[in-house]
Amino acid sequence: MKIGICSDHAGLEYKTRLISYLLGKGYEVVNFGTDSPESCDYPDFAHPLGSAVENGEVDCGIALCGTGNGMAITLNHHKGVRAGLAWGTSIAALVKEHNNANVLVLPARFISYRMAVSCVRTWLTTSFAGGRHQRRIDKIPC
Ligand code: RB5
After folding, report:
1. Domains of the chain (ranges plus CATH)?
2. 54 φ, ψ to 5°?
3. Is 9 tagged catalytic?
């Protein structure tokens, strides 16, 4: 599985550590930046990841910023992208099971790195439930 990942400066440390974690688990990882601790604008990194998910260049994505909201709002402008925020493992499971999120968004300034890894592991290993949830997803595009 090929996973795209991006962050702004607020998510850089967790992104760097998550890349090592994912590579160690055998995933292919495409890093869309940022790779600098300098203050930057989250859309500059969210849009390349969103385009890659939209075009099928990666199978799914992980995005991190301070609150997670900037990344999620930006990513969800991309056709076919369902970016969902998680700050705990129950939400990380449900965002896949119910919403089939193809991008997991993490609020780096509000969770520990340990929790970030737990959310990623849970989201990657949970299956979409389909059924009534597919019907609801089909109604999302406007
Ligand atoms: C950066 O200070 C912060 O605004 C950003 O990481 C994110 O929280 C925006 O939604």
Report:
1. 2-137 (3.40.1400.10)
2. -60, -40
3. no
Q: How far is the CA of 129 from the centre of ligand 1 (A)?
A: 32
Please compute, for residue 35, the number of CA atoms within 13 A of its CA located in the half-sphere on the CB side.
Answer: 5
Residue 65 falls in the annotated catalytic set: yes
Half-sphere exposure of 115 (CA within 13 A, CB side): 16
Torsion over CA: 66, 90, 119, 94 (sign): negative
What are the pocket residues of ligand 1 if the criterion is a CB atom closer than 6 Å to any ligand atom?
8, 10, 42, 65-67, 69-70
Neighbouring C-beta atoms of residue 71, cutoff 10 Å: 33
Can you give the pLDDT of all 142 residues of the chain as single tens digits? 999 999 999 999 999 999 999 999 999 999 999 999 999 999 999 999 999 999 999 999 999 999 999 999 999 999 999 999 999 999 999 999 999 999 999 999 999 999 999 999 999 999 999 999 999 999 999 9
> Of these residues, 6, 9, 60, 65, which one is catalytic?
65
What DSSP character marks residue 128?
A: P
